[in-house]
Structure formats: structure tokens, C-alpha cells
Specification:
By secondary structure, this protein is an alpha/beta fold. The chain is built from 24 helices and seven strands.
Length: about 500
């Protein structure tokens, strides 16, 4: 469907909004400190592989190229997320056009994306969600085109799902968007031609890196996705409430209400193309809402649906829409600004108290304290490290942040001592014969790990701790354990088998 009354100025407006977003993302990406997950992806990119234990590689691989150009900087690490966000905007434009809008409506949708705190930060935060979100919008665009009779759109849908799977596995939840399209007789006739099946084959071929890694590592990544990451409980509404509450906050209650009304108005149109859009918007929210009846799910897992639903909001008029949008925009931008300020100046939150209705509230110190100390600890460990010695920790967040803040100069190992499930890619980087006999400087904030270490090393001796101070006050203490002669690396420091030839792997 051709856009209504789209002018050159509308197209310039869209380009200006997108470029302003890119500039904002770049500034935030360069200014805000990395999280543990982002440092984890950076370290994965230093160990290029077909895939990784808990994530595919599409959003990880480009970090290697970006750091080669920009150095080991936060901006380089976040480059793939910013690229994915740019692609999301450009996929949105033809989607809106097919639904009867134009560049002006697409520009408004991009602005409203930024009014949602989850997108405001997700647009530059290095995560697999950013890549999947771009693929989700691309898949929705292709499915809408299918509903409108475009047979070649099968190729676009297959490409989006294949590449999206290499970003994050839940892209398969975009498949239900095909259902409304297949209710169109002309689209069902496509199934009698080779195009849909060749597109499906292409999509499967694109996912090959995940299966190659799986076959080489006893299907550990697939088993983790199917069972290893899940903790099921009895039927409860608690996690559903958390999921709904998180989405109301991340999208703002006002924009969430507006999106719900727009979704309902769009569904009543009974247009197959519109129903494709609305199924794509609802699918992650419904599926993960059902999953949350038995287990805790990430509050941000429904974001692809919220982002796609914005196309409906900018195209469907209803009473009170502008008021909800204005309130949502104000709420979202104020919340995002407050969060940016808190991340840039976390010391202002330490010991912060306020009084309300006769009660005193205080910001918990532990979560805020986690923002401090990694650069100082990395420097301290480098000064203590003996020749040939490695640093190690049981926390994947600490391990990879120490490596990043040392500029990659600090050799680090992840130690699986406490039964962690996530962030275990580092256990597939070194074979046992490479690690056996190594001396390790172990750093931890936990008590009791020395008992486990004593069973792995010939000797374990505690040294002076590393204290992290803010305004003269100790807020974190890292214990340092010098461990000599690693006897049993299997299970704790590596999940790889010994190589048959006994060759040394670096």
C-alpha cells in the first residue's frame, strides 16, 4: 500500500530523527560504564567461535571488528547494538508505509520508541535483544508484505528469522505472524511454489553456526536453553505480576495503555496485514506471560512486541491518544534522565535517604556499590601477578570487567565454584592440559570458596585484601587467594575434554 501524502520534508524529518537518535546513542554508549554482560560479550569476541554456550554470535562477532578500529572502548563494545537500532528504524519505515502511513508517522514512532526507557537504553546497550529486535521488525515487515500478496517477501521473512536466530533464539516466536497471512488464499497458493520452501531452507542454513558449536560441545547450548536456564515452580501469579509490572514501567504506564487501545482498534479492522502486525506485537508478551505463570522471566523479554506495536499507535486515531502519548513521553524521558544521572554519578546514591509519610527509605548500598572498584582491582591484581600467573574469580561479571578494565592485559579465568548457570562461555576456551599446573591469583567477595579451591590446587594462601573506598569509606572488599599448581581444572575451570594428542591450546 502506497503511503498517503508523503513529502520530501517527511523523509527529511525521518532521516533527521534517526540521525539524532544515532548521535544520542553514541554519546550514551561512550559515556556510561559497561555492565558485566557487556564485558562478557567483549571477552567472547576476543575468543571468536561459531557460537557460545548461552548466546549465539551475531551480536558478538562485530565487536571484534569495532574494537580493532575504535580500541577496547565502551563505544566499540556497543557498536553492534547501535547498528541494530539503526536497522530497526529503517525496517520500520517500509512497515509503516505498507500499513498506509509514511515517513512522518515512522519518525513519530522512532521518537516514541525513545520515550520508553527500555528502548532508550536498549538502543545502545550491547545485548542480543538489540539484534533480535531488528530481526523482529524485519520479519513483521516481510509478513505484512506477504499478507498483501508479495511472494518474494518469503525471502525477507526467512532472512529475518535466520539472522534473528543468530542473535537470540526467541525470534522463533515471530513465526505466529505468518498465521494471519496464510489465511489469505493467494498466500496459501504460494505454498505450491518453491519460493517459501527455499526461503525456509535458507533460513535453516543461516542458523548453522549454532548447530556446529552444539555438535562440537555435546549440545550443551541447546540443553541449556531447553532446561538448564529454567527453574520451574508451582503455578503462581507472582511472576506474572512482576512481568506485567516490569513492562508497564519499561514502556511507561501511559504508553502501555495507548498501545493496548491501538492494538484493539487495529484488530477490529479485520485486515490480514494489520492482524500480522498485531500478532507479531502480541506474541512475545503472551508467550512469556504464560511462561511467567511457572517461572520468573525477564521483564524486557516482551520488548519486541512493544516496539512493533508502536506502528499501530502512530497510525490509529482514538480519543485520548495524544494525552496518553504526551504523559508517556514526559514520564519516560524523566525516568530515563534520572537513570542516566544515577549511572553517571552512582556515588550520589550511597547512603541516600528520603522521608515519606512519616517513614524513612534508604537506597540499598550493595547494588550501588557494584558500580565501583573494577578498574582499581584490575590495576592491583596486575601489580601482584607473578610471571605466568592468571587471575580468576567465580563471578563472570567480575572476571570479564577486570579483563576489560585492564585493557585485555590481565589474563583471567572463570571458576565455576558456586553452581552458576549463565555466562559460562569462558569454560570452553581452554583445555585441561593448558590449565593444569597453572598458578592463579583468585579474587572474590565471598566467604568459604577457599575450601573448594583447596581441593583443586596444591596450596592456597590468603593475601591482603583489596578495599574499594568511596569518600574515604570502604564499600567493597575483595579477598585475594594465591593458589599454586592447579591439579584438577576439569569442571571448575574448563568444560572441554583433554585433546587426544595432548597438544596445548592457548
Amino acid at each position: 500500500m502506497a503511503p498517503h501524502c508523503e513529502t520530501a520534508s517527511d523523509r527529511w524529518l525521518f532521516a533527521a530523527v534517526v540521525m539524532a537518535g544515532v548521535a544520542l546513542h553514541a554519546w550514551l554508549a561512550a559515556s556510561l560504564p559497561l555492565s558485566g554482560d557487556e564485558a562478557y560479550y567483549w571477552d567472547c569476541a576476543r575468543h571468536l567461535d561459531w557460537s557460545y554456550f548461552d548466546q549465539p554470535g551475531l551480536v558478538i562477532w562485530p565487536i571484534r571488528l569495532a574494537t580493532a578500529v575504535l580500541g577496547d572502548t565502551a563505544l566499540a563494545v556497543r557498536f553492534p547494538a547501535m547498528l541494530a537500532s539503526l536497522l530497526s528504524a529503517f525496517f520500520l519505515l517500509p512497515l509503516v508505509r505498507r500499513l498506509g502511513g509514511g515517513a512522518r508517522q515512522a519518525a513519530v514512532a522512532v521518537v516514541l520508541w525513545h520515550a520508553m526507557p527500555v528502548y532508550f537504553f536498549g538502543a545502545f546497550y550491547e545485548s542480543t535483544d538489540a539484534g533480535m529486535m531488528a530481526a523482529w521488525i524485519g520479519a513483521t515487515w516481510a509478513a505484512v508484505a506477504l499478507a498483501q500478496g508479495e511472494r518474494r517477501a518469503w525471502w525477507g521473512f526467512g532472512l529475518a528469522l535466520g539472522l534473528g536466530f543468530l542473535a537470540k533464539f526467541p525470534i522463533v516466536l515471530a513465526l505466529p505472524a505468518l498465521v494471519p497471512a496464510l489465511r489469505v488464499p493467494a498466500v496459501r497458493r504460494h505454498l505450491a511454489t518453491p519460493v517459501p520452501w527455499l526461503a525456509a531452507a535458507m533460513s535453516c542454513v543461516l542458523t548453522a553456526p549454532v548447530w556446529i558449536w552444539a555438535a562440537r560441545h555435546h549440545w550443551d547450548n541447546i540443553r541449556f536453553q531447553l532446561s538448564g536456564r529454567h527453574e520451574t515452580h508451582h503455578l503462581t501469579l507472582r511472576y506474572l505480576g512482576e512481568f506485567v509490572g516490569a513492562n508497564l514501567l519499561l514502556a511507561t504506564p501511559f504508553l502501555a495503555a495507548a498501545l493496548a487501545v491501538a492494538w484493539w482498534r487495529g484488530w477490529r479492522r479485520r485486515d490480514p496485514a494489520w492482524r500480522v502486525l498485531l500478532v507479531a506485537a502480541a506474541s512475545p508478551l503472551v508467550v512469556f506471560g504464560l511462561v511467567s505463570l511457572r517461572e520468573r522471566v525477564g521483564g524486557h523479554w516482551g520488548v519486541p512486541g512493544l516496539v512493533v506495536a508502536m506502528a499501530a499507535l502512530v497510525l490509529i486515531e482514538f480519543r485520548g491518544r495524544r494525552t496518553l502519548i504526551a504523559l508517556g513521553a514526559v514520564f519516560g524521558f524523566v525516568l530515563s534522565l534520572a537513570l542516566v544521572t544515577a549511572v553517571l554519578h552512582p556515588e550520589q546514591l550511597l547512603g541516600r535517604r528520603w522521608h515519606l509519610a512519616g517513614r524513612t527509605f534508604e537506597v540499598p548500598e550493595r547494588p550501588v556499590a557494584m558500580a565501583f572498584g573494577y578498574r582499581e582491582v584490575a590495576a592491583d591484581l596486575q601489580s601482584r601477578l607473578a610471571p605466568g600467573e592468571w587471575a580468576a574469580c567465580e563471578s563472570y561479571t567480575t572476571v570479564h570487567l577486570l579483563a576489560f578494565y585492564s585493557g585485555g592485559r590481565l589474563p583471567v579465568l572463570l571458576a565455576r565454584l558456586t553452581g552458576g548457570r549463565h555466562g559460562l562461555a569462558g569454560l570452553y576456551w581452554h583445555r585441561p592440559e593448558t590449565l593444569q599446573g597453572r598458578d592463579v591469583l583468585f579474587v572474590t567477595e565471598r566467604e568459604g570458596v577457599e575450601d573448594r579451591l583447596a581441593g583443586l590446587f596444591l596450596s592456597v594462601e590468603e593475601e591482603a585484601p583489596i578495599e574499594v573506598r568511596v569518600a574515604g569509606r570502604v564499600i567493597r572488599t575483595f579477598r585475594v587467594l594465591r593458589c599454586q599448581d592447579l591439579l584438577h581444572p576439569e569442571g571448575a575451570f574448563t568444560l572441554l575434554p583433554r585433546s587426544p594428542s595432548g597438544a596445548m591450546d592457548g
